[in-house]
Amino acid sequence: MMSVNRFVLCAALAVALAGTGACGGNGADDVAYSVSADKNYQKGMDALEDEDWLAAVKYFTFIKARFPYSRFAALSELRLADAELGAGQHVEAIDDYKMFIKLHPTHEMVTNGYANYRIAATYIEMLPSDFWLLPPSYEKDQSATSDAHRELSAFLRKFPDSKYAAKAKKLLRTVNRRLAAHEWYVANFYWERDNPMGTVLRLRRLLSQHGGVGYDARALWLLGRAYRDVDMPERARAAFARLVKEHPDDDNAEDAREAMSALAKSH
User: Fold this and answer.
1) Which residues, 6 or more positions from 81, have their beta carbon under 8 angstroms from its beta carbon?
2) Does the pTM of the predicted model rise above 0.90?
3) Greatest alpha-carbon span in the chain
4) Which of 32, 78, 81 is nearest to 59 (CA)?
5) What would the pLDDT profile of 215-248 be if each residue is shown by its tens digit?
6) With 0-12 CB in 10 A as exposed, 13-18 as middle and 19+ as buried, what is 211?
7) How far apart are CA 238 and CA 141, in angstroms?
8) Where residue 265 falls among pLDDT bands split at 50, 70, 90?
9) 20: which DSSP letter?
10) Could you give the CA distance from residue 91 to residue 123 in angstroms, rounded to a whole number?
11) For 207, phi and psi rounded to 5 degrees?
């Protein structure tokens, strides 16, 4: 649950973002504006570094209002999104990153992948938590996780050589693990309720979209059994054969061999 202080900060940030009148000119007595765009920008960056999101918003909004033709004006649009992300205003941050990309497609902070990476990172911030009083994250809605997967995958396709690519690959593996855990949970839900075709569909998606994160062997074992239950012996044999080939030391590999033999005798 958001703390009272965080709630107050975000409420204040929303007010500050409502217009330049809220934070421009002499109306703000808690920040000291400079006479140049670059000095105000540096003060705003220092505020970001100190996680003083409201002060950062004031500096960057001041730059946009007072120095609209400076190169720091466009940068300030981007940094406002950074401040929103820091303050937990995820939807607003995503919208502003996307707007920055749309308005400044040739800007260095777009062409180097930064803005796209921050969109993906914002979705990561929105992932369901594993707070111990709540159901596990894999049981919860995975919309933000799917969004993060989409954005990270798109980022890596578009910016494979970006300096943010290594971080994006690491985050994508985390996202894939979460989505695989969810697909495994749902597949077992269907299996326990005698719905083998539902199990098949979820396991096929797990293996095709989120493989290689620790679920493949158990997914192939259950997939073969589910195919067997819906009278698709060739696909069942293929699942068992893949398990034996790719995971020969898995606990279920010997059972898979026996299942393949039994299928061969019965068909």
Assistant:
1) 92, 93, 96, 97, 100, 118
2) no
3) 86
4) 32
5) 999 999 999 999 999 999 999 999 999 999 999 9
6) middle
7) 32
8) confident
9) G
10) 9
11) -70, -35
